[in-house]
Amino acid sequence: MASKVIGNALQCPSWAFGGIGTIRHARSFATGGLHTFRPTSSPELDGLLNSFRDNIFIPSHLPKRYRDVIYKTKSNPLLSPDAEPKFVDIPCGNGESIKYRLTPIDRLKDEPASRMRELLDLMKVPGDFDVIPPFLEGLHHARRKLTKSDLEKTARRANVAGRHDIILECARRVKTTGFILKHLPVAREAIRGPYLQAKRGNSSEVKKALSQAEQIIELLESPAHTKGKRVEPTDPRAQPDIIGVVLAIAAIQASKHNGGSDIDGKVAMYANRMRGTWVNSDLMVQPPQGQRRKNQDFNQKLMAWVPVLDGLRLAMDVLGAESAEGVWFSEVIPQIEGELKRARSNVDGRGRASLAYDILMGK
Predict the structure, then answer these.
(1) Sheet of 15-17, strand order
(2) Phi and psi of 128, rounded to 5°?
(3) Which of 137, 185, 263, 325 fits a 20 to 30 Å CA distance from 33?
(4) By C-alpha distance, which of 258, 255, 264, 274 is closest to 320?
(5) Is the pLDDT of residue 27 over 50?
(6) Which residues contact residue 360 at a Cβ distance below 8 angstroms, ignoring those fewer than 6 apart?
(7) CA distance between the termini of the chain
(8) What's the whole-model pTM score?
């Protein structure tokens, strides 16, 4: 029976022998998301990527009859190292092809799990993050879903490496990467990347950061990310700190590079948008019981709201305390300062969020 299965597979009209034991497929896999990975700075990372490619990504592109051959134990003797090798030449988008040998795959033993933490830990230089979009496309095509935590962690690590551009690219290509922004922690990490660039960048970099943050705001409204659902209070679209980060970048541009003037009106515009969502703020929400969970929630609060407080202070200087926006700033800034002070006092150690708070507060 196994012989019949593999025999029928190898006689498929859309496949043809290109030499003994080699099969060539007529169509390109480029539109299906099959990519080759360029060498990275880490041999271990290269090995892990190749493991995903050989055991998950490429098999997901094979016709069902071929997947049956490599997954069914009855076919194992025909694909053993001692048997005549059977190869598949798979064209890639770069004009090259991969010679893939059909070998038995045990899904429990041979397929690597979706180990984003391990993958990210192996990335040593910013250039390594270039593999993220094709890697996510491979997972998505193979129907391997990442958790919200995986997406959040990926965005956070990219921000630390100064590669938030990769996160924006993945979000733009959500239909092929699965990098969806509808979850608040993921959206918060995605929008924080441009802010970090604006804080340390020159005039052109701040302008670029504002454009990237505005693109993220637009993506949050797109059907691909909202899944057609109406706005709810916990939705990223409804949270004032998301708009507050964009306000912060606009205020940085106005205060540091536009002579302290709101030339394009974006500081006032985003201030009023933030004000319109203030009722949905989770700033004052109490964390659940348990010290470890409290630390995590207080850290997340610092991470989300420190950029906002920074932006509101700058926006106050730009628009003036007597403006309508300035009057509102005078009301909410003390609330944010008080809540962040409480959060900082409850956080153990000196992580990135705590350090950012201490710097902002001049400590």
Answers:
(1) 15-17, 22-25, 87-91, 97-101
(2) -65, -25
(3) 185
(4) 255
(5) no
(6) 306, 309, 310
(7) 74
(8) 0.85
